[in-house]
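tmp note - Sodium:solute symporter
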Amino acid sequence: MIETTDLIISICYVIGILIIGLSYGIHHKRKNRENAAREYFLAGKSLKWPSIGLALFATNISTVHLVSLAQSGFDSGLLNGNFEWMAAFTLILLALFFTPFYIKSGVATLPDFLERRYDRSSRDWLVVISIVSAIIIHIAFSMLAGGIVLKTLFNVDLYTSVIVISVITAIYTIVGGLKAVVITESIQTVVLITGAAIISFAAYFKMGGWQPMVDVLQSTGEMNKLSMLRPHGDPSGMPWYAVMLGYPVLGIWYWCADQTIVQRVLGAKDENHARVGPLFCGFIKILPVFIFILPGLFAYTLAQSGKLDISALQSIDETGKTIVNSKGIYTLMITQLLPTGLVGILVAALLSGLMSQVSGALNSISTMFGYDIYKRYRPNTSDVKLVRVGKIAAGVALVFSLMLLPLLNRYESIFNGLNDIIAHIAPPITCVFLLGVFWKKASAQSAKLTLWIGSALGAIVFTVNKLYVDTSLAQIPFMMMAFYLFMACFVMQVVFSYVYPVQHTEQSEKLYWKSFLEPLQSKGWSGIGNYKTLSALLLLLMAGLFWIFR
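out:
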């Protein structure tokens, strides 16, 4: 349990975010209703690169990351940092190759883009997949992780705490639209990073620095915990080649083709802001390894050296062996390593992760339902009614997410469970977006069949793996499974593109790159803010970091 002072800080933070979010909603209502939908769903195309970068990071980093990355740091060291640092490469892809099409085409949703490049069937399928994935991946998993933390800290029922926080988040999201989401997410990113940095420094100083941690790892034979690129046969199931082959499949879908993430880019003021925003986020993505994962590794060495009491997480299995339920390691560190006052800031950071993830997903769901579903059947719908329909859709999505919590709570590791699901959803979507943008011959019929068959194949493999856990298929690590499913989809779409040759429309003819150099012809801003300069700097920095922690 936390002290009264910390509880007051946490409550004041939630109330403050609610007031800020609602103030933008009230301001939005006072504006001219002529462009109500554009203002609500895309922030009136007014977002600048700092807001875009911060909002992208906040939408990506949820309580799942704070809790599960610390858990992974405790269990396997820096290994899962690959998910954070590899993101920088896919954000560069977003900035260089995908963003120009999204901005120039003027689309409000990514399913809309897919229709312009392929056909209506592809759009419809992506809408369904995107809404379902937003409900499961972005909302339900985040609420589950948040509920576990709040239950540990406040000793309140998991579902009660999640419902209260989610409803508060839904109020300002549904009232304020994307502008309110981005403004609150920018604030939440700062709070989240500050809180995570505090626990990192606390663990660092409690350990006595970096070298004492290394000494403990050496004495326990666990030096591999400092390595991010593991050899073949590593017990984690994530050797270096699995990361290099499997992550791009997950990452390109998540960062370049998922509405919940890319909607911040779609609301950009212009192409330069839309390109620099993701690159800014790429630089921020360096931090999670040091402020989310490293504290978990410090917790492991602190426990080994007797400086952290983890008895509350220990239990005895049927063989008499002591096991540690590391799900609660982050909250344990908060209560044992921080003084009163700082605990409240950490709780605010955890709430930031939960609220930003939920708000971003609800806004994207309302946008897709309004533009891609409702307006299709009622094309003459006014902007005001479209906004109202979007708000109702967001509310319904929140209820569905809450209903999924008992099912998702069965995963031993929330982070691995999350990525396991993504690995089976992403391959066909990544395939049709990549080939659509880079290959002239990718046809509408091939995209439709690849999405249908690829999604069915992913669902079948996922189901078989869960029902028959002892089969050789079930033993394939999810990263490699994502790669194998992607290659199946790739071959599928190429073959179908020759069987059903492409018939470009006037729109689709402009929505693929004639060469890899074509997207780099735009000059961009001068100086250090140029998107090409920033991309090169980010590439060099990430290459250096991977070399150091190889």
